[in-house]
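Q: Sequence in, structure out?
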Amino acid sequence: MADPQHEKDVVGVVEGEHSDSREHVYLQETFYILSKKNAMFRVRLTSKGLSLIKEADGSSKEQTILLRDIVGSKCMRSKRRRPGAGSCVCSSFVGAQQLKVVDENSGDLDENDVSAYLYVYAYILKRSRRNLKRERTTITLRFRSYDKYEDNNKEAQKWRATLKCLIGGHPITYTPPINDKKLLILLNPKSGPGKGRELFQTKVATLLQEAEVPYDLHVTKYAQYAREFVRTRNVYSWRGIVAVGGDGVLFEVLNGMFERLDWQQALSEVPLAILPCGSGNGLAKSICHQFNEPYIPQNLTGLSMALTRGKTTPLDVVRIETKTKIMFSFLSVGWGLLSDIDIESERLRAIGGQRFAVWALARILGLRKYKGVVSYARIKDLSNLPKPKQPLTLSHSVSQDGALDSPDAEAFIDCDERSSDMFSSALNGKHQRVDSWYSVNSRRSAFFSTRGSEYHSVTSENSEMRSPVHVCMHGPASHLPSLMSQLPSHWTQEEGEFIMVHVSYQSYIGEDFLFAPRSQLSDGIMWMLIIKAGVSRSQLLSFLVNADQGLHAEHDTEYIKMVPVSAFRIVPEGSEGHLTVDGELVEYGPIQAEIFPNIVNLLVPDTQ
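A: Exactly. Output:
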């Protein structure tokens, strides 16, 4: 019979979840524990997960690792032990450190041990005193029923293949399904406190390796790099596009996709994802909130697992129009207090998310008022909300001379004033390499490479991008009048002085800011918070202090109210102030927006 080596960190498995009659058992085996007499594990691989029934001294205890918590598995062989290193690994498994394994093709394997070892990697949901978190668990099953390694390995491979089919939702075969497509990972090393590369290395790379998910990692080198990249490359060669950084990286990716002639097909076939390494991380927190996935700052486990599953959900996008630009948004539009805090606190970026709290106090003490007109199309019946259909034909949001270059063409730059200056400096050799920490030949960069994965230095050959003659924004056509035209008569209009107007289409606009508790990733609703002049500083302070609880959403007072809308227009007076879209500064002046449901497919945690 086979015997298991149950590593110390297995304490994270879920207890007390016994199988029921509806479970289908695919494989089962008995594994003996050599370090304990009369002790064994009856292991079953079922439609529910990996069931471990421990029998010892006449009693039994069942533990189940759910399929949704398992990321992958690997077959290994025992490592050759040096003379004088101790007793044979086969004789005893006292502790996890007794077992050393290598790949079956390694030249350092132990020919005397014919056992095949199946490593099963899982990240188990476990409740602590305060909240839920995921703990890494490794189960090691030792197959040695036969006298030859090849026969034992065949049995281990059968378990591995079946497990991989179950994880991926494929028909059960004894040949593991193969997906050669890689993930495209676009990482901004300067997001938030600048720890994106470190977090990817320590929190994500190992998990992707365990799940056997290959990836191409590209580090952005200047503003709009991610946007140019997805606009001009053949995105269909990747299984998904992952933005690593703050919400701004995904904003670039989203708008780069809408600048493609084939935007509709690209967004339909290539899902997007985000790994939060920025300061705000509103979308990432909203995803975890909706799918009951623990969100712990600088812990990317749950969202990294989403990359391995391939489960997607639709995401609403909002079409934004200013006097000179069209853009698409997934998070929020802001004018006034919150936008001031977001933009002006950039100088404190090094302290991470705490920068918002520090600057909020400064802005409340020096409170500003903004004159303008706010108009909106209010949604009166949230229970019977019509879903606008996606357009069936490609359309242009803005008509411009010239056509967008082919998505398969060489890379180009959509130069605005800032990125143009950076690009010019780069050409002149004056721009400092953001990627100097990892070069393509560096030993350190090898950590980013799992089997079939590649790390791309931004200073690699042919990595520079040229400026195109024209770039055109595509996407669903607007249903609204032009920005300077009269609005429909059924819209509500409010004129006067405002402290802020902030519109969000996600539940969170920051890690600790529950802006719209009733919001879903795709529900066709934008939530507009209007705070008028006349509100006291104590009310504002209370609003910000209780932002993590979303209490403001249920109050409708003389000065503060929350309104569900499908479209809106803001027309500020004067030229002093900040307007933001997804936390990015846009030109100050008239702005209008409308929501389009179900445009993007988003990779999300599998918590079903």
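DSSP finds eleven helices and 27 strands in the chain.
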